[in-house]
Amino acid sequence: MEKIKNNPIVKKLGFNRIILFLILLLMYGAFSVIIPGFASMARIMSILNYVYFLGFLALGVTFVIATGGIDFSIGPVMFCCALMSGYSLNTFGVPVVVALLMSIVIGMLFGCFNGYLVAFVGVPPFIVSMATMNIAKGLGSVFTKTQSVSWPQSNDPSGNGWFRNLVKVDGIPVGLIIFGIAIVILFIVMNNTRAGRYILCLGSNKEAVRLSGVNVRKWQMLAYVICGTMAGIAAIFFVSAYTTVQPGLGDTYNNEAIASCVMGGTSMGGGLASIGGTVIGVFVISLLQEGIMAMRMTKEVQMIITGLIVIVFVYADVSARRRRN
Amino acid sequence: MGEVILTMSGIDKSFPGVHALDHVDFELRRGEVHALMGENGAGKSTLMKVLTGIYSKDSGTITFEGKEVEYHNTHDAQEAGIVIVHQELNMVGDLTVAQNIFIGREFRKGFMIDDRRMIEESKKLFDELHINIDPRAKMSDLTVGKQQMCEIAKAISHKAKVIIFDEPSAALTEKEIDDLFAIIRDLRSQNLGIIYISHRMDEIKVITDRVTVMRDGTYVGTLITDECTKEDIINMMVGRVIYEEPKTHSMVPADAPVVLKVDHLNAGKMVQDVSFELRKGEILGFSGLMGAGRTETARALFGADPKQSGDIYINGEKVTINSPEDAVKHGIGYLSEDRKRYGIAVQKTITENSTLATLKEYMAGLFINKSTERAVTLQYIKELDTKTPGPDQLVVNLSGGNQQKVVIAKWLVRNCDILIFDEPTRGIDVGAKNEIYKLMNRLAAEGKSIIMISSEMTEILRMSDRIIVMCEGKKTGEIPIEEATQEAIMDKATRDIR
Predict the structure, then answer these.
(1) What's the rounded Cα separation, in Å, for the pair B217 and B20?
(2) Are B291 and B282 in contact (CB under 8 A)?
(3) Phi-psi category of B267—alpha, beta or left, where left has phi over 0 and alpha has psi -120 to 50?
(4) Maximum CA pair distance of chain A?
(5) Partner-chain residue, chosen from A197, A209, A272, that has the shortest CB–CB distance to B347
(6) How crowded is residue B111: how many other Cβ atoms within 10 Å of its Cβ?
(7) Which residues contact A323 (CB under 8 A, 6 or more apart)?
């Protein structure tokens, strides 16, 4: 076992991530055996639909957790983005491009709001994001006059349905390409840019970074801005796959995104983060969701399982830290 | 000295990659103060952690009061009568002294906590120890020295038979150390066994009966304190003689320009109207008792804490420093007295820590150029002789001295002209200490200017070209090294107290 762990390739990829990946394959195998017809292209496409939007949420929140913070607002923020831009599209007739950009900008503004309060005002992230969660829900409801918003179908006579090609063209999952590009970019940002380095270091010891002459507030805020922007992008992928958005919802996705992060090896204490791990975590959660649905169980069962996952993995992380110190 | 109360023999403990304890023996008698010495990483703390059940041993036996024992946590050890007074105090600042002492085992009256009885019991404890502390006082209002006394009282209240002091004097003033010693002598006369861990050689001579020396996880030997010299102990610790005379004259040329001028600096209660000049190539010692305002002066100067008034001139030009960012821009580097809190990001690698202040210089466009970053880190690992398998090692795995070198590397990489070393050798072993002294001398010779804050008189006298003495937030003296004596410094450092 030790020998495998010290293998340079295994070290590079991360032992825990390899295990998680094997768990993912095992789960897929298990579901395919238990559920007749699970191993089908349609199922995979359905899983991918979930992967896209959850992936953007989870990748974004990875940056916030890396600073030692937390963001419980991403799910409702995603819904708020989808509601406000979709309503503008349907009611005010703004072009689709504008609606999509609007979604991203609204997400970014939420990120700025959270980040400013946390980094510059000094309000604890937990409190800030809890408050923002409610603001996002409320804002989405008020803007749409508490009505659900349906984005145009791909065959909509207005021609406004073209944005669905972001996810799927003739049954080919092109969304995977966009998601892949996003993973690569965020991986580089986390590991090879100043932003990522400072975010990780300040998650480990903010005061030491400040006393090194780094403007820690700016970089800490940036993590929340990245997170909010990702929620805005997630909204686009959500409506591309699921069409209808209802006001007042979205909080379940917070836990799923956070569960994906901690499963992938991002530490809730800050300072350690793994983009690759988060991605595998997202696949695990998405697969789980699909499997549970296929077994004709309700979403609530999945909520219980995700809740337990968060606790188990945070416990593992905390005890690993304790052993190291 | 009475009969043997505690024997540890053949204690062995390994961590992945480190043989921390290699069949170590240790023996403690009733009514003795037994010093445990050794460089950092020698295994003193690990041995004590094995004793108090924080770590489990791989092999060996612990015999306490004639019975073989093994504790699985500190609580077990405490119950048996072995308690440890940590270097870092574990007190709840918002609770009273009495509440802290009886925390977790409060006296009750029905469902209510019986505060009155806890206060009475605390008073009794303090009377026994001849300590004058009000049990009703809030813990955070006490000085560090007084807080430590409370920690000792708490230890005694557990009916301790063996008390371990882990560098108890590190944060105390001379007067407080005297009080601490009085208490330790008192405990000794009550036939307790006392283990005393310290790096301060003078204290070992004053307070201990025997000295056990460890080196690199092994037992080197035990001496009777009265029969050995400081040099004997140091030789056992490092296997070489280290002794250097104090500086006798300033190494700074008379015409060296002033690089930093601080004019009437005010920052809160701890920095009142402080003015001084620093010359090129000078090591300016800041002496004074704990709480004299030296660190606060440095932090205000560095922009780490806000200041009320005062001007700072660098090379004759007035500069604005409102944040560490400004200070670093103007070529000032600050090594904090508290490495873990202010110096390093422990879960990050040596490389990531070394370039923290200079990351901008390692950018190729948007991206960090990791190979040059690594190369520079390697260069400083070699130059400072940092003991590590490589630049990718996490800082948490390094010893205190080597962590300090990583912080120094951070500022050397920045090529700062003005360096503030705040207690640069605190908690660092003798060997590493000397390396840091050599390094500081070399930097000064290269034309860097250094402000060195130190609470160790020998360090001040050995390193400084000029000495500034502070007392209770004010500058009380400025002494050229030629005229500096311990007495002269002490006199100025205590001017306002008596």
Answers:
(1) 5
(2) no
(3) beta
(4) 63
(5) A272
(6) 5
(7) none
What length is written for chain A?
325
Euclidean distance between CA atoms A61 and A199, whole angstroms: 12
Beta-carbon count within 10 A of A10 CB: 14
Query: What tens digit of pLDDT does each residue of B261-285 get?
Result: 999 999 988 899 999 999 999 999 9
CB contact set of A65 (below 8 Å; sequence gap of 6+): A258, A261, A262, A266, A267, A268, A270, A273
Q: What is the pLDDT of residues B114-159, one digit of tens each?
A: 889 999 999 998 888 888 889 999 988 888 778 888 888 888 888 8
B8: helix, coil or strand?
A: strand
Task: Render pLDDT for B190-207 as a digit per residue (tens, 0 to 9).
Answer: 899 999 987 677 788 889
Strands of the sheet containing B466-471, edge to edge, are: B332-335, B418-422, B449-453, B283-287, B466-471, B474-480
What percent of chain A is modeled with pLDDT above 90? 69
What architecture does CATH give domain B258-493? 3-Layer(aba) Sandwich (3.40)
Please list every residue in chain B whose beta carbon sits closer than 8 Å to the beta carbon of residue A204: 345-348
Class assignment of domain B4-238? alpha beta
**DSSP, res B170:** T
Q: Which residues from B are below 8 Å from A201, CB to CB?
A: 345, 348, 352-353, 356
Cα–Cα distance measured from residue A269 to residue A265, given in angstroms and rounded to the nearest whole number: 11
Cβ neighbours of B359 in A, within 8 Å: 194, 197-198, 214
If DSSP codes are grouped into helix, strand and coil, which group holds residue A38? coil
pTM of the model: 0.75
Q: How far apart are CA B72 and CA B52, in angstroms?
A: 8
Per residue in A269-290, is it b (16+ CB within 10 Å) or e — as a string? ebbbbbbbbbbbbbbbbbbbbb
Q: Quote ipTM for the complex.
A: 0.83
Of A197, A208, A325, the CB nearest to B344: A208
Q: How far apart are CA A260 and CA A262, in angstroms?
A: 6
Q: Which residue has the tokens 């109207």?
A: B273
Choose from B348, B351, B355 for mutation: most chain A CBs within 10 A: B348
Q: Which of B328, B346, B347 sits opposite A213 (nearest CB)?
A: B328
Q: Are A219 and A122 in contact (CB under 8 A)?
A: no
In the numeric block, which tokens belong to residue A190? Answer: 């986390």
Count, in order, helices (H) and strands (E) of chain B: 16, 24
Closest of A115, A298, A271 to residue A208, by C-alpha? A271
Read off φ and ψ for residue B5, nearest 5 degrees.
Answer: -105, -30
Cβ-based neighbours of A144, under 8 Å, separated by 6 or more: A83, A84, A87, A247
Q: In what order do the strands lie in the sheet with B59-64?
A: B18-29, B4-15, B59-64, B67-69
B311 vs B326: CA distance, rounded Å: 14
Query: Are A214 and B356 in contact (CB < 8 Å)?
Result: yes
d(CA A255, CA A133): 13
Domains B4-238 and B258-493 share a fold: yes
Q: Do B324 and A198 touch (CB under 8 A)?
A: no
Size of interface A-B (CB pairs under 8 A): 74
What is the token pair recorded at A46?
A: 């359905």
Average pLDDT over residues A48-77: 96
Check: CB of residue A214 under 8 Å from CB of residue A197. no
| Cβ atoms B187, B22 nearer than 8 A | no
Residue numbers in A near B410 (CB within 8 A): 212
* Amino acid residing at A239: V
User: Residues 6 or more apart from B22 whose CB is under 8 A from it?
Assistant: B12, B216, B217, B218
Give me the domains of chain A, ranges plus CATH numbers: 17-31+39-317 (1.10.3470)
Residues in B closer than 8 angstroms to A317, CB to CB, are: none
Residue-range domain boundaries for chain B: 4-238, 258-493
Structure tokens at A142: 């008020």
